[in-house]
Write a structure and sequence with these properties.
It is found in: Membrane. The chain is mainly α. The protein has 21 helices and no strands. The longest helix is centred in the C-terminal third of the chain and has 33 residues.
């Protein structure tokens, strides 16, 4: 077969502005797959990783920091300063209301990112919620903080599903979990080091007449606004979009990116948007199964994020400084395990087994945390529970992404998946109540049940996928309307 250099092939055809669609129609995308050596292909993927997985991961880090720093602010004096108590459940209500607007705005937000474009949409909402975070530092009461939390939830609603959706459009199915893990690993730094950062910011107590907990919100809000400006120049839009987003790749590299997505799942170009076509995808049962899995996982992850500092302080008897700093080690271990899992899950093409295995690990960790008296053993349980919940987040993103085809189905599935995550946030922030200290047994039991249900749902999906793959092997009806497509177990 004849070979050619990338520049020669693409220069000869004068590719127009809509070059991706042109390349597919003219067969250039298929040829593009033959233009690069493995080393050149790796360089192209590294460019994409830096512009997408790393940039979005940093923004996700600040997103998690902004939505979960209530725990750190709480033990820094916020509850006392705003009059929160076990009687009025102020802390629980402030934690909860975020997820109401976060859930409501999920589905329309994903439609907006498809129509407005990821760069414009994502950077705008990051800038806006940064401004809201600054406002948190000046609230006079917890009721006003509730209002700001509702606004924050509405703004953040489009961020996570938008990132998940954008990443899934740029990578083939069996390259995706490592990128999801990188994205989530960078984000999880917020959980690991947010407490240490908060402890440092607490030392600004009294500066300009403001309490230390207020400076936590103000400084983190300013950092968020700064990152939004930087991200505008780094984030790229969808692979099939205009050349404005392709400045970091030339035409041949762009065609190669499209070629491997087309070869993997043949859904690079989206259909024209239609409300009925978009919502029709909701009839697919696996869309809701993935949403349930995410809801159950985030019940654990949000409960840990919001209440771990409080459990370490009130439940295990550590000091404020110890409680802030002891949050970090479990998240560091979780990040290491998460990335090792991602590497082997992509290599061995496993998804469901990883998800179920993490849930079993979570059951063990929660049992130690909730039903053993020794602080050392309970803290070891925190490691297991934190690793389980956080490692399962990118694993679930990839499990879903590997088994969904079609741009609008992918968009809806991303929205329902993150909608499930927000419902999990509601559950996770309400089951740990102040009156249940120091053991918080009802919350622990809820998280245990969630992990058991994860295992059951994964087993049911695995049976469904195995039967469908066997049907295809026997020449039966294609999966997801694509001949040769098979589910990833």
């Amino acid at each position: 077969m004849a070979t050619h250099t990338p520049d020669t092939k693409m220069a000869a055809v004068n590719v127009p502005d809509d070059r991706v669609e042109f390349a597919i129609k003219e067969g250039l995308a298929d040829d593009a797959a033959l233009q690069f050596t493995p080393a050149q292909e790796k360089r192209i993927v590294r460019k994409i990783d830096l512009r997408l997985a790393v940039t979005l991961g940093v923004l996700y880090c600040i997103s998690l920091l902004d939505r979960t720093n209530l725990g750190s602010a709480s033990i820094a004096g916020m509850q006392k300063g705003l009059g929160m108590s076990a009687h009025n459940n102020g802390y629980t209500i402030v934690s909860l209301v975020f997820f109401i607007s976060y859930t409501v705005f999920q589905v329309p937000a994903v439609v907006l990112i498809r129509t407005v474009g990821p760069r414009n949409f994502l950077t705008f909402i990051v800038l806006a919620w940064g401004a809201v975070m600054i406002g948190f530092g000046f609230v006079p009461s917890w009721e006003i903080m509730c209002v700001l939390r509702v606004i924050l939830g509405a703004l953040e609603a489009g961020f996570y599903p938008g990132c998940v959706y954008l990443l899934s459009t740029w990578y083939p199915r069996f390259d995706l979990q490592k990128r999801n893990a990188l994205f989530y690993l960078i984000g999880s730094l917020a959980g690991g080091f947010g407490g240490i950062l908060a402890y440092g910011l607490m030392q600004m107590d009294g500066l300009s007449g403001l309490s230390g907990w207020r400076w936590i919100f103000i400084i983190e809000g300013l950092v968020t606004c700064l990152l939004a400006f930087v991200a505008y120049f780094l984030i790229v839009d969808f692979p099939e979009d205009s050349p404005k987003s392709w400045k970091f790749l030339n035409e041949a590299e762009a065609a190669w990116v499209v070629a491997r997505i087309e070869k993997d799942r043949s859904d690079t170009l989206p259909d024209k948007f239609s409300v009925s076509k978009y919502l029709k995808n909701a009839l697919d049962s696996k869309v809701w199964a993935f949403a349930w899995l995410t809801m159950l996982t985030t019940t654990n992850s949000y409960a840990i994020a919001y209440f771990l500092p409080i459990i370490l302080l009130d439940g295990m008897g550590f000091s404020i400084a110890e409680a802030q700093c002891l949050v970090a080690p479990p998240y560091v271990v979780a990040a290491i395990v998460m990335f090792i899992q991602a590497y082997f899950a992509d290599k061995w093409r496993m998804r469901g087994v990883v998800v179920a295995g993490n849930a079993l690990l979570g059951i063990l960790g929660l049992a130690l945390l909730g039903y053993v008296h020794s602080p050392g053993v309970r803290y070891f349980g925190v490691f297991l529970a934190t690793t389980s919940a956080n490692a399962n987040c990118p694993a679930l993103l990839t499990y879903q992404g590997n088994n969904i085809r079609g741009q609008w189905k992918r968009a809806l599935a991303s929205a329902t998946l993150v909608g499930g995550a927000s419902i999990g946030g509601i559950i996770g922030t309400t089951v740990f109540r102040a009156k249940d200290a120091p053991n918080y047994r009802p919350g622990i039991l809820t998280c245990l049940i969630a992990n058991v249900l994860i295992v059951i749902i994964v087993v049911a999906l695995s049976l469904k996928f195995h039967r469908a793959n066997k049907r295809v092997d026997n020449g039966g009806k294609p999966i997801e309307g694509l001949q040769g497509f098979k589910y990833t177990l």
